[in-house]
Amino acid sequence: MAAGFLMLVGKTGAWWLTGSAAILSDASESVIHVFAVTFAAFSFHLSHRPPDARYLFGYERVSFLSAGFEGGLIVLAALGIIFTAVRKWMDGLVLENLGLGTLLVVAASVINLALGWYLVNEGRRTQSIILEANGRHVLTDSWTSFGVVVGLCLVLITGWLPFDPICAILSALNILWSGGHLIWRSATGLLDYADPEVGRSLRGQLDVICSELGIQYHGVRFRHTGARVLVNVHLLFPASTTIGEAHRAATELEERLKAASGQPLEVDTHLESIEDHADEKHPGHYTGLPN
User: Model's pTM, two decimal places?
Assistant: First the structure.
């Protein structure tokens, strides 16, 4: 939040010095970023609250709402940038103090590049979509700034002023794509999209563990909460197996699956008898058989 506010002050100052449409577009995106990162900070705090009587599964899914909110703001910023650049182009372009303004934008770009890279990697390491989404927003801001710098340098070299709004529009199109990607990730998360790669990994681990424990399984389902993966799986035991034996085997499977996954998992198992399962139809269920 502090870095975002600092970038806003610096870019606004650069626009005031130069009158550049590209710099104004960059500063406008920073205004959006300050609002977005404020909401992201609130969502990050809320997502770490433990479950309670009203929200039995916790607050982690606010992560997807935060990513969608940030993506929506990015899209609005991109549309505003395009509108502003076209209007200034039509009204007549007047640019001043481009050298100093360009230096200010370069400094902002480098800072944002380092910050965005850190946030994205930290988000991936901690499985936090909030941090990753905000990091991608910061990186988008950085690429936008570099695009602005290119436009200003072209103006300085050639003296052709339309390079300024053209680069602003191209930067806005890049921002638009990034915002749309965040909105898509938010929507798929809220709709419990089942990533095929995650599914293949889970079933591969279940095949190995169930083979070693002599258990069959079916009905694997999973969804991502923004910080954890919730897994449901049905385990099949001979009808002669006691409840205690089946429960101990299920508990061992849950612990081993958590250890093997390499990411936060919450595993919920349902116990069934093989004999009953053989007499029923289970469309769409995957059955793993031990070797």
Answer: 0.68
